[in-house]
Backbone:
C-alpha cells in the first residue's frame, strides 16, 4: 500500500510557508500484530500544530525534519492484525497528514457513524470539545450569574466554551474577528454578547458588554485581546490559558514596555487564578465529557460549525488560513472518500 504524505521540510520563521512542507509518496509495511492499516478519511487541523513545527522547548516533542506532520484523523480500517477492530470499521486515530497509515490498535477509538457525523470526533465531540469542557469546568468553574469571556470564540474550542458557560447559568461574551463571525456568535451559537476585536472601538465595546466585569476569561489568543481584558477582570477571576494564537508565529518578544509588573500586580491585588493547561492533564474526565457533550449536541444545546476543505493538497493553505483567522468553525480536511 502506498501513502501520500506531507512532511515537515524545514522549520518556519513566522507564518509557515509552502517551502516548509514537502509532499512525498512512500510504501507502507503490512500491519503487524496489534496493528491496522487505515485509509484516512478526515484530517483535523489545529493551532497546536504550529508549535510542533518548532524545536523550542514545549509540552510535546517537535515534529522532526522529514517526518509526517502530526494530526488527529478519522479513518476506515482496510486490514487489521488485531481482533479489536476489523476491516470496514471507522476509527479515530493520529495518522497525521497522509492518505494511509499503519497504527497501533490500542491507540484507536472505534466510531459509530450512525451516532453522529464522523467529523465531530475531530471537533465538538473530540479533542477541541474536551479542551473547552475540561479547561472551563475544572479551571474556570463558572457560576450562575457570572460573566465568561472567551477569545477566538467561533473556533471549535471557543464556541463550545461559550455554550457550556450558558448551560451552567453564566453569561457568555465572545470575541472574534470580523462582522460575519460576530453575527455567528449571536445567531448560531447563542452568545449573550459578541465583539469584533478588529473594531476601532473594541476596548469600549468590551467594557459595554461586561458592565459587571469579567469572572472567567478563557484565553485562546493573547496579544491585544488580553491587554483589553486585563483591566476588566474581577477579584478572584479565573483565567484558563488554552492557547496564544496571536503569538504562535512570533520569532521575538513584542515591542513596547515590559508589562509583566502590571500583570503580576493585578494577579496579587485581585487574587487572580492564571492556569495554563493541556487537555491530556484531565484525561480521566473524558468519559463524562463524551456523554454530556454528545447529549447536548443531540438536544441542540451545543451547536457547532465545520470548515471542510477538499483533498490533502489543500492542507497547507487551510493551515495558513487557520493561523491567520480566516476559518470559521472546526477546520477539517477531507482526505479520502
Residues:
Amino acid at each position: 500500500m502506498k501513502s501520500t504524505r506531507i512532511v515537515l521540510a524545514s522549520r518556519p520563521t513566522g507564518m509557515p510557508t509552502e517551502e516548509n512542507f514537502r509532499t512525498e509518496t512512500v510504501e507502507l509495511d503490512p500491519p503487524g500484530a496489534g496493528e491496522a492499516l487505515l485509509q484516512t478519511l478526515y484530517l483535523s487541523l489545529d493551532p497546536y500544530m504550529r508549535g510542533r513545527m518548532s524545536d523550542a522547548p514545549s509540552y510535546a516533542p517537535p515534529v522532526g525534519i522529514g517526518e509526517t506532520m502530526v494530526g488527529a484523523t478519522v479513518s476506515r480500517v482496510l486490514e487489521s492484525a488485531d481482533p479489536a477492530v476489523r476491516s470496514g470499521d471507522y476509527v479515530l486515530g493520529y495518522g497525521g497528514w497522509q492518505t494511509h497509515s499503519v497504527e497501533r490498535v490500542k491507540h484507536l477509538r472505534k466510531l459509530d457513524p450512525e451516532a453522529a457525523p464522523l467529523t465531530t470526533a475531530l471537533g465538538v465531540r473530540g479533542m477541541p470539545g474536551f479542551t473547552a469542557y475540561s479547561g472551563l469546568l475544572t479551571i474556570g468553574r463558572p457560576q450562575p450569574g457570572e460573566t465568561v469571556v472567551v477569545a477566538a470564540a467561533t473556533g471549535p474550542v471557543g464556541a463550545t466554551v461559550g455554550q457550556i458557560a450558558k448551560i451552567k447559568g453564566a453569561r457568555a461574551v465572545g470575541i472574534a474577528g470580523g462582522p460575519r463571525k460576530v453575527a455567528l456568535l449571536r445567531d448560531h451559537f447563542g452568545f449573550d454578547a459578541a465583539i469584533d476585536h478588529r473594531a476601532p472601538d473594541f476596548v469600549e465595546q468590551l467594557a459595554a458588554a461586561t458592565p459587571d466585569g469579567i469572572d472567567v476569561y478563557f484565553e485562546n489568543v493573547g496579544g491585544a485581546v488580553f491587554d483589553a481584558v486585563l483591566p476588566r477582570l474581577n477579584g478572584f477571576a479565573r483565567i484558563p490559558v488554552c492557547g496564544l494564537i496571536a503569538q504562535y508565529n512570533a520569532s521575538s518578544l513584542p515591542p513596547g514596555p515590559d508589562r509583566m509588573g502590571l500583570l503580576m500586580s493585578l494577579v496579587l491585588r485581585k487574587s487572580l487564578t492564571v492556569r495554563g493547561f493541556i487537555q491530556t492533564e484531565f484525561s480521566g474526565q473524558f468519559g463524562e465529557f463524551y456523554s454530556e457533550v454528545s447529549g447536548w449536541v443531540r438536544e441542540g444545546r451545543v451547536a457547532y460549525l465545520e470548515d471542510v476543505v477538499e483533498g490533502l493538497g489543500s492542507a497547507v493553505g487551510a493551515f495558513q488560513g487557520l493561523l491567520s483567522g480566516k476559518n470559521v468553525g472546526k477546520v477539517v480536511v477531507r482526505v479520502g472518500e
